[in-house]
Specification:
This protein has one domain. With about 210 residues, it is an alpha+beta fold. A hairpin with a 2-residue loop joins strand 3 and strand 4. The protein is built from four helices and seven strands; from the N terminus they run αααββββαβββ. The strands form two sheets. Strands 1, 2, 3, 4 and 7 form a five-stranded antiparallel sheet that branches. A two-stranded antiparallel ribbon has the order 5-6.
């Protein structure tokens, strides 16, 4: 495994366990908005800390905060989850030119902006073997904002494994791959199966 790919995989693990909470638990919309803002502020704070940031030293000099769409509760949707239990895998290419095998955990169907959509759900093989549920599911995706207001290489969601067949997709928590901020990171490229033919006006914007 190349050094670049190794760094990228480590950064992906870091994303899943530290920053990339895919679901905010809240009793009402007001509490939800507050928690999302707190999460974003904490991420900005950590990006200013040398030992925590994913920014290059050059970007850190002028860093004032990541850019996001306004929080929109309509982009927090319930999806119908179909699990695959046959151990099938999928090789996802990375920006470093190599590939990494993920388990295909299943598929989620949902409606967004009046359209019926589906996304494939992946799981790192190490996470699958560990039996962990928190932050164990990985959904890389592109949409019609990719390459315009959001990063052309797509964005990510990391989700907890639900106890039932309802998977909450919160696109307000969609975030950029770390290769946006540092070319030393090698990031998974969303497969064609996860190209959403809809504008997802939620989550992290392209950073200037």
């Amino acid at each position: 495994m190349s050094k670049i790919l190794f760094i990228g995989l480590l950064s992906l693990i870091f994303q899943q366990t530290v920053y990339s909470q895919g679901f905010i638990y809240a009793d009402n919309q007001e509490e939800y908005y507050t928690k999302v803002i707190e999460w974003r502020n904490q991420k900005d704070h950590d990006y200013k800390v040398k030992d925590k940031t994913m920014l290059t030293e050059e970007l850190m000099k002028d860093f004032e905060g990541l850019k996001y769409y306004d929080i929109d509760y309509t982009y927090r949707v319930n999806g119908s989850l179909i699990r695959f239990d046959d151990g099938r895998t999928f090789s996802i290419k990375t920006t470093g030119g190599e590939s990494y095998d993920y388990l295909i955990y299943g598929k989620v169907s949902f409606k967004l902006n009046g359209k019926s959509l589906t996304l494939d759900i992946y799981q790192g093989q190490r996470a699958a073997k560990s039996g962990k549920k928190k932050g164990a599911l990985f959904i890389p995706f592109t949409d019609l904002t990719s390459g315009d207001t959001t990063y052309g290489g797509g964005r990510y969601l990391v989700l907890d494994i639900p106890d039932d067949e309802i998977l909450v997709l919160d696109f307000n928590m969609a975030y950029n791959p770390y290769c946006v901020y540092n070319p030393n990171h090698s990031c998974p490229i969303p497969p064609m199966e996860n190209d959403l033919k809809v504008m997802v006006y939620a989550g992290e914007l392209m950073y200037p």
